[in-house]
Structure prediction request, 377 residues.
Amino acid sequence: MDQCFDDIRPYTDAEVPAAIQRIVDNPSFPMIAAYLFPGKPVDEFRQLCLKVRTIEEFQGLVMWPVMLSIIAHTTTGVTDSGFDTVDDSRKGIYICNHRDILLDAALADYYLYKNKKNTLEITFGSNLMSSQLVIDIGKVNRMFKIVRGGNIRDFYNNSLKVSAYMRQVVSQNDHSVWIAQRNGRTKDGDDKTEMAVLKMFSLSSDKPFVENLLEVNLMPISISYEYEPCDFLKVQELYVSKYQRYEKAPGEDLNSILKGITQPKGGVHIVVTPAITEQELRFCDHFEKNKKFQKLAEIIDRRIYENYKLWPNNYIAYDMLYQSCKYEHCYTEQQKNDYVLYMESGLSKLNGDMDEFREIFLSIYANPVVNSEKLYQ
Prediction:
């Protein structure tokens, strides 16, 4: 790996033992152990971590048991599709709709591992690297940094660097890359691929549009949760944002990570969809520059919507929001009552107008149905 990427790349195996030692020596380690393995003695978890000497050992000994624990304790089950057919000899960029800070990528990584495929290098926003502990855990798990913020010049230079790094990983290394379809999580349930993300992929090559993007092998991933991770926190943020600039509180991102891990999510469905084809890229290439990327974003969105699992909660929210009976055959009265009770209980803890809260909450769950309907218009 080129030295110019040292400030953003994951740790190498040689750097892992020192990072593990820092992790277990951190005063927050007992709290983390209790979150991840409730009931397990902290010292037992510490000794397990100290056995780790490589990234592969960290994932095998620590991350996969953690993922099994999260799945067992916070979901009613995860279903997956497409991971068994991934061509591991062809690396690429997995571009995913983004609902949870940690779990979207972690679940993709876990199901690749479960199907005996190579795991991913995963993007990690610099805004999340709030402490050495978070940096160490992330970089030991093959996460690399995307720098957030800065002026326009900084933004361009950072984007160029990340683009070059991802292209090098895909073309020269043994791993594919995971990245969200947009800058930050989808808060309103309306998954949309940002053209800026797609343009960033192309910055690291002077090749023509088709050859350029075919080289990085774009593979959309669709993930859907029965209960939206951090749904009430998202409602509060969207409500405040209607009236003023939303400023995150100190530690808010870390709180969202922990909430996403521990919150009951019901069912989860994750799908690796077919890679973007040369034919699709040639179709996009018929348009002028910005339109090319717009058309590519639409193709990726369609892949995600076609494979997004709609849950009873989505149909209930749609009918409530639009005062219709259109989807009443997709849920029972008991399911509706349970959903309303869940909504009212969570919203009652927020500060603001309850009617606006309800509209925002219902929109979060209803928008995937709206997007599904658009597929057939």
